[in-house]
Amino acid sequence: MTSILVVLGGTGCTSDDASGEAATDNTAAETQGAGQPQSGYPITIESTLGTAEIPAAPERVVTIGQGSADTAVALGVVPVGVEADPWGGDEDGYQPWLRATIEAAGDELPVAFAGQPELDIDAVVALEPDLILAPQSGIPQADFDILNELAPTVAYPGQAWSTPWDTQIELIGQALDRADDAAALIEDINGEFTQAAAEHPEFEDITFAYIYTGEPGSLGVFQADEPRSAFISGLGLTIDPAIAEQPMTEGTASSVLGLENADLFDETDVVFSWFNDENQQAEIEAQPLYAQIPAVERGSYVVSYDRQFVTATSLLTPLSVPWVIDRYAAYIEEAVSKL
């Protein structure tokens, strides 16, 4: 069994003198070329958890969950606080593309506060936000109610952790009164995908499944709207139609199947996955039902335990896509060559 193993140690852009202090206000990230607010406040945004009433242009934005800080920065607004990423971020909790963009613009890094396993609400309160962005997050109703009393809070429009990437950008653009700029960011990302797909015509008609395992015996698959699958679809591959027939697991954009159902992927051309580390990969791949998945056996299998790479390919943001798209396409090209 061979696989396209992505190990990219050292690719993160870290800094020994990174600051953990808050910026005093939301400053423009000039490298992104964002415009100014476009239509005026007040702005009202509905979500599954409640309504955000934004009375005026925010000056102290806080982001919770994944990807929202990237979009805010791309729109010219550097948050005063962001949820730390202890898994895919650097030692200070910043994802490398976010750190690099903020530092390149000469802006101060936001405070990184804990979001998992439990949101540090006290840290959010201390930041004195006037807008909280959490459209791609898992905040529960109780936390939303507290946060929305503190500042207008934009939560997810459907299920937790299930907001499509372009909807996330649109919601943030609406909240920051930069809807036209947000639309341009979406167009730019789609353009990057179109170009990459055109450079890899061999991806057309190739089916894929992005699977994951938490422990021996478990198996799940990400559905089409989940950012990991959406990223691969953007490159021109087609999600295996059998996946859409599986019931969604509540609170996720995935389906938990159990390893006994691994034969669902017998006809899948390319399988994607990720692991916490090399030991977990070896443990999972030693399970016969997993090892016998045809794509795994023949090597049309893209797998990584590089945490920054895995995180970047799990997001579709204006900062993460340019950071990773060319490398991802190259690994997929190698996997497709095994068919």
TrEMBL record:
Keyword annotations from UniProtKB, A to Z: Signal, Transport
UniProt domain Fe/B12 periplasmic-binding: residue ranges: 60-336
GO cellular component, one term: outer membrane-bounded periplasmic space
Biological process terms in GO annotation: iron coordination entity transport
Source species, domain of life: Bacteria
Family named by the database record: Belongs to the bacterial solute-binding protein 8 family.
InterPro entries: ABC_transptr_periplasmic_BD, Bact_iron-sidero_bind
Pfam family, one: Peripla_BP_2
Biased composition (Polar residues): 24-40
Region annotation Disordered: where it falls in the sequence: 14-40
Name of protein: ABC transporter substrate-binding protein
UniProt-listed PROSITE patterns: FE_B12_PBP (PS50983)
Subcellular location: Cell envelope
